[in-house]
Amino acid sequence: MSKNDTLFQRAQITTPGGVNSPVRAFRSVGGTPRFIQRAEGAHFWDADDKQYIDYIGSWGPAILGHAHPTVIKAVQEAAALGLSFGAPTEGEIMMAEEICKLVPSIEQVRLVSSGTEATMSALRLARGATKRDKIIKFEGCYHGHADSLLVKAGSGLLTFGNPTSAGVPEDFTKHTLVLDYNNCEQLEAAFKEFGDQIACVIVEPVAGNMNLIKATDAFLQTMRRLCDESGSILIFDEVMCGFRVALGGAQSLYGITPDLTALGKVIGGGLPVAAFGGRASIMKHLAPLGGVYQAGTLSGNPVAVAAGLTTLKLIQAPGFYDELSRSTKRLSDGFTALGKKYDISFCADAIGGMFGIYFSKEIPSSYSQMMQSDTASFNQFFHLMLDQGVYLAPSAFEAGFVSIAHSDSIIDRTLAYAENALKSLGKPK
Ligand code: HOZ
After folding, report:
1. Which ligand 1 atom is at minimum distance from the Cα of 209?
2. Alpha-carbon distance 346 to 338, whole Å?
């Protein structure tokens, strides 16, 4: 029995499903999760000391590659000064200044510890500032596990949503309207019906939780206009795509200014830092200035901030995003070319350091299109890649991540393994 098997059996005794976050359990792809013992650059090693090229990068944060020496040094130095104070530090000011400089729509920012906290707090702030209850989200966008966001579409187009998780009372979701991603007509209809009651629209401008799906310009422009016309707040959830697709986030690529932005992942450089921020006129509603309560013992933790701040400095190196985007595109173009070569419904897409691979004829643009992809072929492909030492996200519905440490030779090796895998897959159509 492998050490991974032994650890998985042991883990299941004391931890539900053996993991601390469900997708890590390999339930959708089957098999034994790999227990990771160490990581460096573009690679990690499992409990059996098998090396993998890592394409999840801790689900986004590892943009510099794992264990970047400058980040590790900053963390060690900060740790030596004390792990947590529960009182403000200069590092938090520097972090806030850096975020406001890099994302101009953010005039003020509050640091928290997870993406879920960031989106949940942004939502409460939007409701508090507008004194409205209703919110709009989009099918397939994941904004963390706050109650009112674990919601799927209701029975009709303009009916409010139903819980997607046990334990979420229907009452908690009755203010959440769930619309189709990239569907401007539905947005128009929703605002026509409920415009003056809508506190906010929350969206992943580049969705990364239904695999990678890019918003269209028209979709984001329509929601910006409708929010302006109705006095609703536009929240960009850039927990995944912020500092990932471009230095200024997806908002800088699309040229759209949200009112509030949620950030996470890259801004912590691998430690738990997330943030939400935006217009000062909205942020002033937050305690201690205003009546919207939010707090956290480990918010702005000095060690986590040291990792985040150092990461934010390093990603500003000249040409960083050009290089990251070039490598990611090399990978996704390579995947697509293989799909064509073997006449398989298999293609890929990329933006900045994020990519998606799809067992479908075309790149999907909505959740329902994504749901039609061939997940059985993905699962086979996942294991064929894993066996060759490539760790892809263990679900057909997750995006992939490339780091600056993924050299051309690592990517070309990945593509050679993908070719082997696709050849042995046969011809799923
Ligand atoms: N929220 C991630 C999936 N989109 C999973 C995070 C994790 O398991 O680490």
Report:
1. 4
2. 8
Between the CA of 335 and the centroid of ligand 1 the distance, in Å, is 24
Same domain, 215 and 325: no
Please name the residue whose Cα sits nearest to atom 8 of ligand 1. 21
Q: Is the pLDDT of residue 152 over 90?
A: no
- Confidence band for 47, pLDDT divided at 50, 70 and 90: very high
For 98-127, how does the pLDDT look when each residue is reduced to its tens digit (9 = 90+)? 999 999 999 999 999 999 999 999 999 999
262-275 pLDDT per residue, tens: 999 999 999 999 99
CA of 291 to the centre of ligand 1 (A): 32
Pocket test for ligand 1, best of 24, 29, 59, 117 (most atoms within 8 A of CB): 59
198-203 and 134-138 strand pairing: parallel
Spell out the SS3 assignment of 60-80: CCCCCCECCHHHHHHHHHHHH
Question: What confidence category does residue 426 fall into, taking pLDDT thresholds of 50, 70 and 90?
Answer: low
Domain hosting 84: range is 69-314
* Tally of domains in the chain: 2
Same domain for 258 and 164? yes
Residue 49 CA to residue 38 CA, distance in Å, equals 9
For 300-339, give one letter per residue: b (16+ CB within 10 A) or e: bbbbbbbbbbbbbebbeeeebbeebbebbbbbbebbbebb
Residues 114 and 260 in one domain: yes
What is the C-alpha to C-alpha distance for residues 157 and 190, in angstroms, rounded to an integer? 9
pTM: predicted TM-score of the whole model, two decimal places: 0.97
Task: Please choose, from the candidates 219, 183, 223, the residue with its C-alpha nearest in 3D space to the C-alpha of residue 201.
Answer: 223
Distance (angstroms) between ligand 1 centre and the Cα of 239 equals: 11
Check which CATH number belongs to the domain holding 355 and give it.
Answer: 3.90.1150.10
- State whether residue 246 is helix, strand or coil: strand
pLDDT for position 429: 44
Q: How many whole angstroms separate alpha carbon 310 and alpha carbon 371? A: 39
